[in-house]
Amino acid sequence: MSETESPLLTASGLTRYYGPRVGCVDVDLEIYEGEVLAVVGESGSGKSTLLAMLSAQLAPTRGAICYRTREGTTRDLFSLSEAERRFLFRTDWGFVHQDPRMGLRMGVSAGGNVGERLMAVGWRHYGNIRSEAVDWLGRVEIGADRIDDRPTAFSGGMRQRLQIAKNMVTRPRLVFMDEPTGGLDVSVQARLLDLIRSLVADYGLAAIIVTHDLAVARLLSHRIIVMRQGRVIETGLTDQVLDDPREPYTQLLVSSVLQG
Amino acid sequence: MSERDIVLRVGGVEKSFTMHLRGGAVLPVVREVSFDLARGEIAVLGGPSGIGKSSILKMIYGNYRVDDGTILLREGDQWIDVAQSSPRRVLALRKETIGYVSQFLRAIPRVSSLDLVAAAAREGGLDEEGARDKAASLLARLNLPERLWSLPPATFSGGEQQRVNIARGFASGHPILLLDEPTASLDAAARARVVDLIAERRDAGTAILGIFHDEKTRAQLAVRMIDLTRFAAGPRGGLAGRAPEERPDSHPS
Fold first, then answer.
1. Is this complex's ipTM strictly greater than 0.85?
2. Rg (CA), chain A
């Protein structure tokens, strides 16, 4: 973690209006490999708009995002061709949706879901694809005997783990997560947090996690961004911002967490 | 204390909390705190409760912001000011230079005690196998029953949790170690083992700054006392120096 290392992704002045309505204004951020960045704030604070822009799914009204590719060149995301962006999305990036049904094909087997992403990057040999799929299902604690089952037969927690396996199989360097533990039972959440944390540690993954759950941000992230009404109001080391919040709104958020 | 042995230099540190939910009330915590710490030395922060002892440890660790002053850590030939460091720099310092044993264990719920400690040892640079060995030997030394190693500490007693916490803090070889009442919830036998561990680290050259309320522990470790009443920010309310989560406005009920 040297100071001279260059960021994987840099956003500057990111702004998005929906007509006259503000989505997100003047957001600057950087993320480095091996680092988890949490974006917190209430609904309507602009978190999801920000995530959609960072993952190149939504064009900003103004501002820029630069990404350092595997080849080592830094490219402006919105100067890439559609094909290049799609390729990034299939290989170097992952996107974990809150609702696994949005990230999975529910009519396709678990193995098929994972294998599909490999085929998209050129894997052709059925046996290799299947064994890689089994391997990744194992890492997210889904037994090999479930490989031919469809996600419709899985519990919410299993679906979420399958979605993560599907994303991880191409060894992405950057994963976007939108409320990855939302809607899950507390015990299932804990297991998922543990999984995400170990993936970050083992693969040097960078992750940008949008969450309204400060406990998730505390346990997973190194740095945090607090958003309100489309703007970043406070940012810094996660434990510092949560234990010694400076802004009135951050103090309100922190003080509103139920004490266990 | 020789100048070149100094590894931590706190100079003119000031801290207060501004509580916006209380109409912007300002709670002074500490003012003009200055002291040095050398390698191979144990110093203890002294003074009545509420004087800001934990807050000082938290500022040194980068957990609390610093309003004014400097907190210099030696890293090789360089001095790094924690108070001015970027978040990533602070994270790097925590990895390489400075360790912290907090009063309470905070961990991902499902992770086993052995894995928690091993993860800290890996952070400190050991490989997978070395880290597990190190974790096992620490837990054994701290006399945590082996049947508990594979369990997450959430259901443990206070003393058992604290032993996991201590093992985690001692798992990597930080040259500076901050200890916030590491022996508070331990029985005499467990405390003696912790005192041994601390003494061993001091003898190996680690600089240790702690809060120890227990007179016996202080005497055994022959610590130098840094009296904070000299620096206290006044007028001292009973709230100053406590963590935000302990302050009443954090509990809206």
1. yes
2. 18
